[in-house]
Design brief:
It is built from 4 helices and 25 strands. By secondary structure, the protein is an alpha/beta fold. It has one domain: 3-Layer(aba) Sandwich (Rossmann fold). Strands 1, 2, 3, 6, 7, 10, 13, 16, 19, 22 and 24 form an 11-stranded mixed beta sheet that branches. A 7-stranded parallel beta sheet has the order 8-11-14-17-20-23-25, with no helix packed on it. Strands 9-12-15-18-21 form a 5-stranded parallel beta sheet, with no helix packed on it. The longest helix has 12 residues. The N terminus and C terminus are likely disordered.
Amino acid sequence: MLMTGAHFPLDCDLALLGGGGHGRVLMATVELLGGWFVAVNDPKLMAGGGPAGVPVLGDDELLKQCPVDRVLLVNGVGSAGLPEARADLFWRWHARGYRFATIVHPSAVVAKGAELGEGAQAMAGAVIQNDVRVGPNCLVNTRASIDHDCVLGDTVHLAPGVTLSGGVRIGDRSHLGTGACVIQGVRIGQRCMIGAGAVVVGDLPDGSRVAPGAVAGERPDASPKGATTKEAAR
């Protein structure tokens, strides 16, 4: 299933922004979907033949020569921290009039009532349940799971294996590391960095940092009498 948040025709050419690890995974995904890339734009790669033989432009000026009504862009930049580079790339090219393809891997499960914004990506094995809203440029990575009524702002990255219970809200440009879990109804602010394996049991303000494997957030109302928040989350 290949969707475009901007509702462009699917016979448009695709150009990949970034030819690193995530970019190569996207190339394989698009191939499974029956699509193709006409070019990779990545200043770090030498111009010429790129991954899987796709031509490398290597210069923004060359990509800007492609007509905006015939080329859909795909954001191949991932993140191991706050996804600022991914966000900046998306909005910079968006401001130039280009639109981004929304990519859904064939093995991902996206419920009928879920909404995926322009440029969002649901990778292999991802699960997105009913009435979920995924904002533009979000990355729902391999086997991440989003349950009912969750809302993700723009450019949120859920790393592989992240689990969101129902009704979770996550602000713009936040990153949840591999295997992190968030219990139901929690609000996480903008530009938050949640480490791998962390468990979030209460609301977190903008700019929060949670160490890998930590239990974060205070929900005294949800704790059994005499139990600490950490104990109640076990």
